[in-house]
Design brief:
By secondary structure, the chain is mainly α. The N and C termini lie far apart (106 Å). 68% of the residues lie in helices and 0% in strands.
């Protein structure tokens, strides 16, 4: 208890017997026992609350993770394509006068 060996506890008891006295020592020991018991109970209550809160948060996190996995599975099954930008309208080629012959860039450089 508290990392004390038997020798340390006997020494502590002898010092308490000298300072407190044999008449009041049992009452002080009972009071000390009650205080330690209440401290242990309060610590246990705090630990239970903390553990319960942690368990609730973990459960909520697992539910969210499951929902995300379900959504990802639905997307992969439906093969949803990401939205694409609309294609730019093509500009029509300029109209040539009747009887004109279109010339490519290569033909124009040769002459």
């Amino acid at each position: 208890m508290f990392g004390l060996s038997l020798t340390h506890m006997i020494l502590f008891g002898i010092i308490a017997l000298i300072f407190i006295g044999p008449e009041q020592l049992p009452e002080v020991a009972r009071t000390l026992g009650r205080i330690l018991n209440e401290l242990r109970r309060a610590t246990q209550d705090f630990q239970n609350q903390f553990t319960g809160q942690f368990r609730d948060q973990t459960q909520s996190f697992n539910e969210l993770r499951q929902q995300l996995t379900n959504l990802q599975n639905m997307e992969s099954e439906q093969k949803i394509a990401p939205p694409t930008e609309p294609a730019a309208p093509e500009t029509p080629a300029p109209e040539l006068p009747v009887g004109a012959h279109p010339v490519s860039e290569d033909e124009g450089k040769k002459s």
